[in-house]
Batch of 4 targets.
Target 1
Amino acid sequence: MSQDTKALFIIFGATGDLAHRKLYPAIYHLFKKNMLSESFAVIGTARREWSDEHYQEVVLDSIEDLTESKEHAKAFAEHFRYQSHNVKDSEHYHTLKELADTLDDEYSIEGNRIFYLSMSPSFFGTITHHLREQSLVTDNGFNRVIIEKPFGTDFESSKALNDEINDSFDEDQLYRIDHYLGKEMVQNILALRFSNRLIENSWNKDSISNIQITLSEDLGVEERGEYYDKSGALRDMVQNHVLQVVSLLTMTKPASFTTDNVRKEKLAILKALKDPVITQDENTEFVRGQYASSEDGATKGYRQEDKVAPDTLTETFVAGKIIIDTDEWRDVPVYIRTGKRLAEKTSRVDIVFKSTESDLFNDQPTLLSVLISPDEGIELTLNNKNIGPGMHLKPTQLSNLRSEDTREESPEAYEKLILDVLNGDETHFAHWGEVATSWKYVDQVRRAWDGFTDSIPFYPALTMGPKEADTLLSQQDHSWIYKA
Ligand code: BG6
C-alpha cells in the first residue's frame, strides 16, 4: 500500500445529499478496491447533532447496494466519525482539531488531510480561514482542499472567493471539482484526439465543418428551484462543464500529459474565445429558453416549479455559437446546447467533418460522435457504397458503445477524482485561470440577457428547446446532428 493514500477526510456538509449520493459510495469503492490505505478516517461535519452511530448508519445506508458483505461495510463505516459544527465558531474548530489529531494517531495517518467543502460557497472563505488559524492544517503531511461548485456566480464573486481561499491555501492545494472532468468519455477526448493519426491529422479547420456539444437533461429542476432560479442554465452548466469540454476538444496538443501542460493549452483556448454577440434578433450568437408545460399537459412548466418565481425569466436552456478566435479555429463554429426538461438525458459531442471537395460523389459529411453519458463510446458515420449496381452511397455507422457491465464496473467520476486528490494529481480539476476566464466569457452573455427584461422564448417541456436554437445553426447551413 503506498504511503500517500493515507488520509484523513474532513467533510463540511456531511449530512447533505451530495455526500450521501456520491462521496460515501466513491470512498467505499476506493476502499473496496484497496486503493485507500487502511490508514484513513473520515470526519463528517454539519450543523445537525448526530452521533457517530447515526452517522455510520447513514454511511452504511449510502453504500447498501455496493457492499460485498455486512462485515466489510461495517469495517468501512467504522472509519467514520461525526462532529456537529458551526463553521463560524472558532471554538468548534478547536474541537475538530482535537478529534482530527486523535484519529491521525489512531489510524497512523501521518498528517495527510483532505478538507472537502460541500456546502454553500458563501462559507468557503470562513472555513479555509479557520482551518489555517486554528491549526487544522498540518506540517507533516499534505493538506488539500476539495471545492464543490458553484465557484462564484460571476467573475467578481469568484475572484473574491478565490482571494479569500488563497489567504489560507495555495492554488496547488486546491481541487475545484468539475465532475465532467472525471467522466471516462470526457477524459477520453484527449486520448482519441492525440493517439490516432487518422483523427489527429483531420482535427483542424480544413477537415472539420463544425463541432456540436449537447448536454441535455429530461429532468426539471426537482428540489433545486431556489438555487436554480438564481443561477440558470448558463451559470449552472455552460461556465463550467460546457466550456471545459470545449477546451478539451480544441486545445493544442500538450507537450506532455503533465497538469501544467494540459492546463496551459486549455487556458489558451478559453482566452481565445471571441466576445459573443448577443442581440434579440437572429444575429445573436446565444439563445435562451425556458420550459413551459409539455404538449400533453402532463409535465408542468418551469414557472410552476417549487421555489421558482411565477414570472421568472431564468433560462432553463442555452444554445450558443462559440468562436475560438485563432487562425486554427476561427472558421469552425462550436455549437453548444444544454437544458432541463429536454426530450432526453444525453451528453454527447458530434464532430461534423466537411464533405469531400470532389464531384465524384454526393457524399454526406463524415461524423464522429463521442457519447459521454448515459451511453458511453464512439460512433463514426462514414459513406459507403450501397451494395448492388451503380455507385450510390449509403451512410454506415461504426459503433463502439461500452456494455452495461463495463459501464457499471468502470469507476464513477467522483471515485476517480477523489483518487486523484489522494495522489495529488490536479489534471482533472478546474484551475483558477480557467474558472476566471470562463466566468468572464459567460458574464458577457449574462449581462446582455439581464437587460432583456420583456420576455424569454419558451419551449414545451420534453422537446429539444426553442426554435431559435435551430435557427442559430441553419443560418450557416448547419443543423443539429442529435435529434431526440
Ligand atoms: C450539475 C448541475 O453540475 O450537473 C446540475 O448543477 C446538472 O443542474 C448536472 O443536473 C448534470 O450532470 P450529469 O452528470 O447528470 O450530466
Note: Residues 179, 215, 217, 236, 347 surround 6-O-phosphono-beta-D-glucopyranose (CB under 6 Å).
Target 2
Amino acid sequence: MTDLTKLSAAALADKLAAREVSSVEATQAHLDRIAAVDADVHAFLHVNEHALDVAADIDRRRAAGDDLGPLAGVPLAIKDVLVTTDMPSTSGSKILEGYMSPYDATVVSRSRAAGLVPLGKTNMDEFAMGSSTEHSAYGPTRNPWDLTRIPGGSGGGSAAAVAAFEAPLALGSDTGGSIRQPAHVTGTVGIKPTYGGVSRYGAIALASSLDQVGPVTRTVLDAGLLHDVIGGHDPHDSTSLAHDWPSFAAAAREGASGQGLKGLKVGVIRELPDSGFQAGVSESFRAALAAMEAQGAEIVEISAPHFEYGVAAYYLILPAEASSNLAKFDSVRFGLRVDVPGGTVEDVMAKTRDAGFGDEVKRRIILGTYALSAGYYDAYYGSAQKVRTLIQRDFAEAFAQVDVIATPSAPTTAFRLGEKIDDPLQMYLNDVTTIPANLAGVPGISIPSGLAAEDGLPVGIQFLAPAHEDARLYRVGAALEALLVDSWGGPILDRAPALGANGGVR
Ligand code: GLN
C-alpha cells in the first residue's frame, strides 16, 4: 500500500471515496507519523485524542451511503489561533493555557460538517506575532527541511505539519504573512484570501482589519478544495463578504490543465529593492517568471511606490489594533489569573498580564498603546492609515494594467533558530512582500518556485490579485505549479534532505 501520508489531500480523498482506504486508516497513518517525527518538529501543541472516533464515524456514514463532501475523511491540522470546543485553544500564549472554548470557529465547524478529521492544534508565535514561531510560549517549531532553522511564522506549526507529512491539510491565519511566509520557507502552498472571504468568527483576533484565515497545503488544488469548504459568507462575522464565490478547486483544475498563463499579464514591482533579497531567492523568482513567459505570459514592470512603506505602516496599525484586542485578557474573563493576596483588581490584572504575556506581545501592546495615545494619534496611527490608503491606490493602479502582481514571497530562505529573535526590526523586515496584501485587503498565494542555489532551501513565489479574484490566484498558481513540478520531476518536498526516505525526519 502507498504511504498514505505522502498523498495529496485530493488523491487521499479519491481513495477514500473509492473505499480503497478508510478514514480510520488514513487518520492512523498521520497519527503514527506525528508520533514518529513531532518530537523533533514540534508542529503540534495538542493532538486530538478523538481523531480516530471522528474518522470511524465518517467511515460509518460512508458505508451507510451518506452524501459526503469531497474532503470527507481527510485529516486536518488546525492553527491554535482558531477556537475549538474539543481541544484547548491557546493562541501560543501562557495566558490561555488549557483554555476550552464554548464554541467552534466557523472555519472549524464548516470543516467538521464537511467530514474533515481534526488531527490537532498547531504551534504558532504567541497571538500570531512573529515570523519564526520562536515567540510561542510552548517552544519553537523546527523546519522539516533543516531542524536548526525556523519554519516561518506565525503559522510555523501548520506549515511544518504539512511539510513533514504529519497532515495533508492545515488551517492558518495571515495578518501580515503568517500563511504565506511559512509556506515560502517550508516548500508548501499558502493562501491569504480576500479580506472578508473567509470568516474570522472564532479566530482569536490579532489585528481585526488585517486578519484572514486560509489554507496551508502541499498543492494548489488541495488549497482550493479546503478554501471551498471554509469560505463564503458568515452572519457571525460582520466583515464577512456577501459575495458569490466560484469554486477554487475548479479554478485550480483549470490552471493545472494548461489554462492560465497564455496572455496573462504579470506585474513586477519596479521599486521593490533587489538589496535585502537573498541571491538564491531573486534567482528562483526570475526563473519562475521566465518559465511563465515561455508559456505565453507577459511580464510587465509596474510602479507601486508605496509598497515598501508597508512594513512601517503595518507595525503601527497592527500594534494599535492588537493592544485593543488583547485588553480582554484581564484575568477575569479568560484563562490565567495570578492571585495577589490583599491586592486590588488592578494588581491582579497587572500580575496576570505580566506572567501570561511574552516579550513580543508586551512590546506590541506598549507600542500600540503609545501610537494610539492622545497627542501622538495623528502623528503615528493617522499617518500609518494614510500610507495604507496610498498602498491601496498603488494596487488599484497596478491592477488596471496587469492581471496579477508577482514578488518573491519573502526576502530570504529559512533563517536559523535564534538568528533574529533578539532583533525585532530584522524579524519585521522579513514581512516586506507579504504585508501590503493585508493592508489593501487583496488575496495572495505563495507556491514553491524552487530551491536557493546557495543553501538548498525552499523559495516561494507570491502572486497577488484584486479583491474578490482569489480564483485567479488558483488558476495561475496551479498552472505554474504544474510547469515547475514537471521540470523538477516531482514535488519539491521529495527533495527535502532532512525528511528521510525511511519515515524519519533526519
Ligand atoms: N510576521 C508578521 C507579524 O509578526 C505577521 C503575523 C501574522 O500574519 N499573523 O506581525
Note: The pocket of glutamine is lined by residues 128-131, 154, 174-178, 206, 318, 431 (CB under 6 Å).
Target 3
Amino acid sequence: MTLYAGPVFEMARQQFHIIADHLDIPLDERERLLLPKRAICVSCPIHMDDGRTAVFQGFRVQHHLTLGPAKGGTRFAPGVDLGEVAALAVWMSWKCALAELPYGGGKGGVAVDPSALSLRELENLSRRYMQEMIPFVGPRIDVMAPDMGTNEQVMAWFMDTYSMYQGVTVPEIVTGKPVGSGGTLGRREATGHGVAFLAVRALDRLQIDPTNASAIIQGFGNVGSHAALGLAARGVRVTGISDHMIALYDPRGLDAGAAAAHVARHGSLKGFADAAEVGPREFLALPCDVLAPCAIERVIDAEIAALLQCRVLAEGANGPTTPDADEVLAQRNREIFVVPDILCNAGGVIVSYFEWVQDLQQYFWSREEVMDRLERALERSWNKVVERAERDGISGRMAAMAIGVERVRAAKLSRGLFP
Ligand code: GLU
C-alpha cells in the first residue's frame, strides 16, 4: 500500500501494470516508474471576508523529474485529495512523454469549492497556496498551469506571488497566464482545439464526413466549451452539452457560441436554450458520432461503456474511462474508436510548453505560429499512437501509454541510479 490510496490512484496503478505487463517491465523496475518522486501537503490559512480564518488543504505531486521539471495543472475542487492529485501527476508524465516534451508529470490541488469564495478570498487562497509551494517549485523544478477550478487570473496571482518573493518578474514559473502577463496566444483554447482536431482526425479515419456528424460534449468549462466551438467550426453539429447543473440535448443542434456567452454571463448552462433536459448518465449514452467527456475522472464505467452509442470517444478530461469500461470498449472496438486522454487533451500542455519556451527566451510568437506548431505536434502523436496500436494489435490507450512509459523508462535506465 502506498500513501496515495484511493480509487483514482488505484486506476492509474492498474493502467500502469497493464502496460508494464505488455512491455515486460521487470517487477523491480516498476515502483521506480510508478511511485511519485515527491508529494507536498500544505495547510493554507486565509482571511475570509467575514473576519474568520479558514484553513484549506493543498497538495502538489511531482511524479518524476527525469526529463526536466514537473509540469501540470493545479485543481481547485471540493473533493481533491493526495491520491487523486498523484494519479493526475502520473497521467501528466505519460502525456508529456508521448508528446516528447522535456517534462515530468506534476499536478496540484486545493480542497475547496472555488464558487463558494469571493474574488478576494480566491486571491488570498491562490497567493497563499503558491507561497507555501515556493520552496518546492521553480521554472526548472516544477511549472504549474490551470486545471479544473483555476484560470488565467489564478495563474497571474501565482506568478505575481512567486515573483514578489524573488524580487524579479519570473513569468516562466507558471503557464496559462493572461497574454498581457507573459502568457501565450492560443493557450486558452489549446486543449479544446486539440480535442476537436483529433476527434475530426478520428472521424476521417472512420470515413465519416464531419459536416454530417454530431457531437455530445460533457463539461462546459475551458476544455468542453472550446471543444464544442472547435467542432462546430469544423462543421460538426453539437447536439448535446452539459455542465455540473444541467445536461441539454437537441438533435437539431445547439449554438456553442451562444452557450459559451450564456455561461460567461450566468455561470452555468442552466436557462440556456429550448432544448430537452436529460439525466447525466442517460446523456452519455445518447446517439452521436463524437462523445467528448470533458469534465472529471471515472464518468464512463463498465455499465455506461456497454450503453454508449457514439462512434468516437474523444477524451478531453483526464481519466474519464475506468479500466473496467476499457475492457467493455475493447470488445466493442469495431464500433467505438477511442482517442485516449493523454493524446486527446495534450493540446493544453503542448501550448503550455510553447508558453514556457517563449517566456524563457523573452521572444513571443504569433497565434498562427502557435496553432500551426500545435497541430503538427498533435499530428505526430496521433500517427505514433495509430501505428503502434496497429503494429501491436492493442488499443489506442495502451499504445499511447506504452509510448509514454517507454520514454520515461529509457531516460531512467540511461541516466542510472545516483549514487
Ligand atoms: N491541466 C492541464 C492538463 O491536465 C494542463 C497542464 C499544463 O498545461 O501544464 O493537461
Note: Residues 71-73, 145, 147, 175-176, 318, 345, 348-349, 352 surround glutamic acid (CB under 6 Å).
Target 4
Amino acid sequence: MEKSDSKNNMLREGSLDDQVVLVTGGGTGLGKSMTASFLELGASVIIASRKLENLQKTADELNEQFPGKVLPLQCDIRDYDQVEETVAKGVEYFGKINVLVNNAAGNFISPTERLSHRAFDTVVDIVLKGSYNSTLAIGKYWIENGIKGNVLSITTTYTFTGSAYVVPSACGKAGVLALTQSLAVEWAQYGIRLNAIAPGPFPTKGAWTRLFPNEISSLFSPDKKVPLGRFGEHRELTNLACYMISDYAAFMTGEQIVLDGGEWLQGAGQFNFLRQVPSEMWDELEKTVRKGKSE
Ligand code: HXC
Ligand code: NAP
C-alpha cells in the first residue's frame, strides 16, 4: 500500500468531475486553497466576494493550470439580490451549480463594549446573513430544478462554546450551525445535504492580521494552545472539504466536524492544565497525593 502523503489530495483524481462549486470568499486564504483542491479533483469553481481584484488574481493563477474552470464574480453576500445574480451568472456560465461552500467571513478581536452597533452588524451580516442569503438562493434554485446539491459551511469551534472578544463572530457562526442542522432535516426530502467544518487555527493573512496581531501573537503559541503542538495545514482542511462535498459523504448531513488538533478540548477539560507539569515532577506529586489518601 502507498504511504499516505498529507501534502496531496487524498481522493482519487476525477472524484469531483462534473461538480460545479460556488465558494464564497474563494479569492483568499482557506477559500482559495479549497478552490485549488476542488479543481485538482475535476470540479469547476465560481469564486465570489467583494474585491474583484483579488478574485481576478486568484482566477488568473488557477485558470493557468485549469483553463476555463474558474469564474470570478464580484458579490457582497450581505445583499440577497447580488447573491441571486451570482447564482444566475454561475449557472449561465457552467450550466449548473451543485455545491455551495459558505466560506466568506468577517471578524476582528475587540472587547465587546468598545464595538459600535454598526461594527456588530457588520460581522453578523457577513457571517450569518451572508450564509443564509447564499443558502436560501441556492436552495431555491436546487429545489426548483430537482438538483440534489450540498452545502458546506466553514464555522469555528466556538459555535458550541462561544468566545470572548469575538462575540459578533461567535453569534454569527452559532447561527450558521443552527442553519446547517435545521435545513439538513428540512431539505433532506429534496436530497440536499448540509454540513460544516469547524477549523482550529490555520494560518491565513485575513485571520492573522485581524485576530493575532504581532503585539499579542506570543500569547497564542501552538505549543501551548494546541495539544498536537502546531497549526493546521491547509491541505488537511481541503482534504476534509473535498470528502464532505463528494458523493463519498452521501450519508452525512447536519454534521459539524472539528479539525483543530485538540485545541477546544484542551480549553474545556478541568485538569488539562496538568499538561504543563513536567514529567520529572510526577514522582513528587504522586507521593504527595498518596500521602493525602491516608490522612
Ligand atoms: C472596533 C471596528 C474594527 C476594530 C472595524 N470596526 N474594525 N471596531 N475594532 N478593529 C468597525 C468600524 O469602525 C465600523 O463601525 C464597522 O466596524 C464597519 O467597519 P468597516 O471597515 O466599514 O467594514 P467593512 O469594510 O465592511 O469590513 C468588514 C470587516 C473587515 C469585518 C471590518 O475586517 C473585513 O473586510 N473582513 C473580511 C475578512 C476577515 O475578517 N477575515 C478573517 C476571518 S477569520 P462604525 O461605527 O465606525 O461605522 C475567522 C476565523 C476565526 O473568522 C477563528 C480563528 C481561529
Ligand atoms: P480570509 O482569507 O480573510 O477569508 C475571508 C473571505 O471572506 C475573503 O475572501 C473576503 O473577500 C470574503 N468576504 C468578506 N466579506 C464578504 C462579503 N460581504 N461578501 C462576500 N465575501 C466576503 O480568512 P480565512 O482565514 O481564509 O477564513 C475563511 C473561513 O474560515 C472563514 O469562514 C473563517 O471564519 C473560517 N475560519 C478560519 C480559521 C483560520 O484559522 N484561518 C479558523 C476558523 C474558521 P473580500 O474581502 O474580497 O470580500
Note: Residues 24-25, 27-31, 49-51, 54, 75-78, 103-107, 126, 130, 154, 156, 199, 201-202, 204, 206-207 surround NAP (ligand 2) (CB under 6 Å).
